[in-house]
Structures are given as structure tokens and as C-alpha cells.
Specification:
3% strand, 535 residues, 3 strands, elongated
Length: 535
């Protein structure tokens, strides 16, 4: 399922409902707005390769936890649905439908409440939908109507009479979750918020914010200190480390600490020291791979931290990065595959990685000698490494024997394929030393030629079709052969279009086809199969 999608349709543009701009955007945090709008863009193209959580995190410089918190907020507002949290999948719902009445409420049940509510907003008339939202909340929450009126008055005092109903109800819901049920509870909560003014201003000063705290800020501070149990000095310590993002970013930082059981100033400082080391490791790895990212927070979370948790050290990861660079693996995803492969083999310590690097270097040296023995001066490819590994490891042949076969292939077309064909014949004949190979070649060269008998009509050898099918099945198990075969098939279709239109086939396509056919034939020979048996 796509990371972000619409509940009802796919769109080719990014729609932003007027109701979102009027009723939700003014009261949401900057982080939550960014996540909603960026996800909205992804939802407009649900099957694009860009529609992934990691792209959103990199694009907004947010952690996965930040994104999840934002979507939880919008789910509470009723305009998205979190289908799954792991992996995160979100559906965007109709914003306008969030205001549609869903059930009837007796007209006279809250008549006094409605009159008093109008007195709180004397300079504007609440719409029927806004009044209905208040009444529906009372029905659902069983909050004392007088407590809700006190909360509404408090919000108006803080935000002005233009404060939106959704904002008031969000405050009411948060307070209710903290135990506010009656008018007395609400009044105590309001008094407590007023007394927190000095502490919240200290946090603002640490965040370098010059504005005055509002009700949202008091609510956050109360959550941190009362619900989560952070001491004021711990909140201040965390605030001093937040460079941008304000209270929303501080909330995310403290949420992460809460989940990690990090509460004291000392624990926070210890965490930051370790994180700094992890960031340094990440940057060093990127440098070895030739990569650069403006922000590495998401890279640390997705790659470096999981690797360290597997037991790798900075030194061992840098060795693996050098190993990847030698093999032309220049992406973090490519390095992840190498790390996982090493881990499955038990290659974790610096010593075991160095042994692996030594083996790789020795293999490269062996392949280079073979290529030089064929008379070629070209560089080493992964295909060469695969062939050498097959001859030396899978077939168990000695390097001296492989080099002798390479000297015999010098000057011949498809030299590496010729080497593989020669080694295959020797192996089948039980040849294991250079002396035995020389004797085998001498015997083959002096053997009397076989004279063909004339006259009899040629009949297909019994089982030849099955043999061909068997050989083709074997070839198709080889990744390089499959790749070449698919390229030839695709190119032949392109060339056929020219022939159908009575147009000459471009010379470049003909040359490319000849090159691919030659490479495929060389691969067939290298796998020990006679091309004539499969053509």
C-alpha cells in the first residue's frame, strides 16, 4: 500500500481544501502543517517512487517519529486516517466532511449553554456547524458544560474572539485527558497555567523565541512536566539543544527522550555525546563513499544507528565503506546490503573484516594476472571476479592451472570465455596440474582426425532437443546470461520496428546487437557450454 493516498481517488494535482486553510491551518504547529501538505503532494501521486516515508523525512528534515506524531495530530482532527503505523500508511480524508453533523441532538438540552456560549463571542455569531461541534463534543465527552465554557473563555482571552472552535475543542480534549471534568477542575487548570508563565518564558528564552507564550505552549509544558515527568531543569537543558523548530521540535525531542527513558540532565548530556559520535561516524562513512547530505539525521536513523546496534564499531564500518568503494558500491543502500551480507557470515569485528578485505585484494590480484596472461590490458569487472571465483573456489582449480589456460587463450576472441571452456574440459578429464594440462593438450593436438562417413542421411541425435532445453534452463539460472539475453530481446524488438516501416536499421543498433551477441556467446563458453548446442 502507498505511504500516502486519498481515500477515494487518485489526482494529478495537489488539492488544498478551503476548509483546511480556514479551520485547521491557523491553529496547527508548523511541523504538522508541513507534514500534512507534503503528504498531500505525495497522495496526489500514490504510486510514484517518491511516495515513501524516507523521502518525506529527507524533504522536511524530520525524523520518522516527528512524522508519526504529526499524523496522529491530524487523525485526532478527523482529516486523515492512519491505516498502519509500521510501516506507516496514511489516508487523507475529506476536510469538509469533518464538519458534517452525524447525529441529532435534542434542541432544548443545551439551550442555556448555547446562550452563554454566544456571550463569550459577542462580536461574531457562531455558525450552526460551530455550535453543533460544541454540542457534539459535550455529548461524546460528558464534560461539564460549565467547564467547557470556562475553557472557551480562557482560549478567547488568550487568542482573541476569532479563535476557532476546533482550537477550543482541542484544548478541551487535552485537558480532559489530564483529568479536567468539572468547572472546578477547569478553573484550577487555568490558574496553574497562569502560574507557569515564568517557567515557560525561560523555555522561550532558551529557544531564542521573542514572542509571548500562548495556551498551546502552556499545555505542552504541562504535558512535559506533569504527564511525562520531566523536571524543569531537564526541559531547559533539552531546549538549549534545539536549534530550530521551536516548541514543536522541543516536544519531539522530549517525546523521544520519554520513549528512551531519558529524564535527567545527566542522561540527556550522555545521550548527546553518543549521538555526536554517531553523527561523526555517519559523516566519515559518507566521505569514504563520496556522498554528501546537508542533513544526516535521517541517514543516522536509517543506516548508521542500526549498523552500530548490530555490534559494528566506527572503525569496522569505515573498513566496510572502503571495501564498498573498492567494489564501486557508492550508495548507502548498497553498503547496507554488504553490511547485512557480512553480518550473516559473522563478519563483524575489525579483524574479520580485514581478513575479508585481504581475500578481496588477493582475488583482485589473481583476476588481474589472468587478464594480463590473455594479453589484455583492460580493467577488472565484476563478471571477471565471478568467473575467477567459479574456477578457483567452486571448481577448486589451482591458480597456476588457470594462468596456463589464460596463456593458451592469448590472442583468441573472447579470451575469458575461452579460458573457462578450456578449464571445463580439463576438469572433466581429471586434469589438476599444469603438467597434466600440457600432456592433455599435446594428446589432443596429435590425435588422428576422424573421417566422416558419407552417404547416410543425417538424422537428429536422440534426445538433442531435450539436451538443448536442459542447457538453456541451466543458462537462464545465470544472472549475467539472463541480463544479456533480455537486452538482446529488447534490442531486437526496436530493430524490428525499423524493418516493419521499411526503414534502414541504424548502424549503432547493429553494432550494439553484434556486441551483445558476442558477450552472450562468451558467457556461454565461460559456463562450459558449447554455443552450437543452444543456437
Amino acid at each position: 500500500m502507498p505511504f500516502c493516498s486519498f481515500a477515494n481517488q487518485d489526482l494529478g494535482f495537489v488539492p488544498v481544501d478551503d476548509a483546511f486553510i480556514r479551520h485547521f491551518l491557523p491553529y496547527a504547529d508548523e511541523r504538522d502543517i508541513k507534514v500534512y501538505l507534503y503528504g498531500l503532494m505525495l497522495a496526489a501521486n500514490p504510486y510514484s517512487e517518491q511516495n515513501r516515508m524516507d523521502n518525506l523525512c529527507v524533504g522536511l528534515d524530520l525524523s520518522e517519529e516527528d512524522v508519526l506524531c504529526a499524523y496522529r495530530y491530524w487523525q485526532e482532527q478527523g482529516i486523515v486516517r492512519i491505516v498502519s503505523e509500521d510501516p506507516l500508511a496514511v489516508q487523507y480524508l475529506s476536510v469538509s466532511k469533518a464538519f458534517e453533523p452525524t447525529r441529532l441532538i435534542p434542541k432544548d438540552k443545551y439551550s442555556d449553554f448555547v446562550v452563554q456560549l454566544g456571550g463569550i463571542f459577542p462580536s461574531r455569531t457562531l455558525s450552526s456547524n460551530e455550535i453543533y461541534m460544541f454540542l457534539q463534543y459535550l455529548e461524546d465527552s460528558h464534560l461539564d458544560p460549565q467547564a467547557l465554557l470556562a475553557i472557551a473563555q480562557y482560549c478567547c482571552n488568550r487568542k482573541g474572539e476569532k479563535v476557532h472552535v476546533a482550537y477550543v475543542l482541542t484544548v478541551a480534549k487535552n485537558w480532559a485527558e489530564q483529568g479536567v471534568k468539572s468547572l472546578a477542575d477547569a478553573e484550577n487548570r487555568i490558574l496553574e497555567a497562569e502560574l507557569l508563565g515564568g517557567a515557560v518564558r525561560e523555555v522561550f528564552h532558551a529557544l531564542k523565541k521573542r514572542s509571548e507564550p500562548d495556551i498551546d505552549d502552556y499545555q505542552l509544558y504541562t504535558k512535559w512536566t506533569r504527564s511525562w515527568g520531566f523536571a524543569p531543569d531537564a526541559v531547559l537543558c533539552a531546549a538549549k539543544q534545539v536549534k530550530r523548530g521551536g516548541m514543536a521540535k522541543l516536544d519531539s525531542v522530549l517525546d523521544s527522550f520519554f520513549r528512551m527513558n531519558v529524564f535527567s540532565v545527566g542522561d540527556m548530556q550522555n545521550y548527546w555525546e553518543k549521538r555526536k559520535q554517531t553523527l561523526d561516524t555517519c559523516i566519515k562513512i559518507n566521505k569514504v563513499l563520496g556522498l554528501y547530505y546537508e542533513s544526516v539525521d535521517h541517514i543516522v536513523e536509517s543506516y548508521t544507528q542500526p549498523w552500530l546496534q548490530l555490534g559494528y564499531t566506527e572503525e569496522s564500518l569505515l573498513l566496510i565503506a572502503k571495501y564498498c568503494a573498492l567494489r564501486s558500491v557508492r550508495t548507502l543502500e548498497g553498503m547496507r546490503e554488504v553490511v547485512e551480507s557480512f553480518y550473516r557470515q559473522g563478519v563483524v569485528s575489525e579483524h574479520s573484516i580485514k581478513v575479508q578485505l585481504d581475500q578481496y585484494a588477493a582475488e583482485a590480484e589473481g583476476v588481474s594476472r589472468v587478464i594480463e596472461a590473455t594479453g589484455s590490458t583492460r580493467g577488472i569487472t565484476e563478471a571477471d571476479r565471478d568467473l575467477y571465483r567459479t574456477w578457483s573456489v567452486a571448481w577448486g582449480l589451482d591458480d597456476s592451472l588457470i594462468l596456463y589456460a589464460a596463456t593458451l587463450a592469448a590472442g583468441k576472441p573472447y579470451p575469458m570465455g575461452n579460458v573457462g571452456n578450456k578449464l571445463s574440459k580439463w576438469r572433466a578429464a581429471g586434469v589438476s596440474t599444469v603438467a597434466m594440462a600440457k600432456q592433455f593438450e599435446q594428446t589432443a593436438a596429435t590425435a588422428a582426425p576422424t573421417v566422416a562417413k558419407p552417404a547416410a542421411p543425417i538424422a537428429p541425435v536422440a534426445g538433442s532437443k531435450f539436451r538443448r532445453a536442459e542447457l538453456l534452463a541451466t543458462l537462464k539460472q545465470d544472472a549475467l546470461y539472463r541480463k544479456l539475453d533480455q537486452q538482446i530481446h529488447t534490442l531486437s524488438i526496436s530493430m524490428a520496428h525499423y524493418e516493419i516501416d521499411n526503414q534502414p536499421v541504424p548502424a549503432t543498433l547493429v553494432e550494439e546487437m553484434n556486441s551483445l551477441n558476442a558477450a552472450r556467446r562468451e558467457r556461454i563458453v565461460a559456463l562450459g557450454i558449447d554455443p552450437a548446442e543452444v543456437e
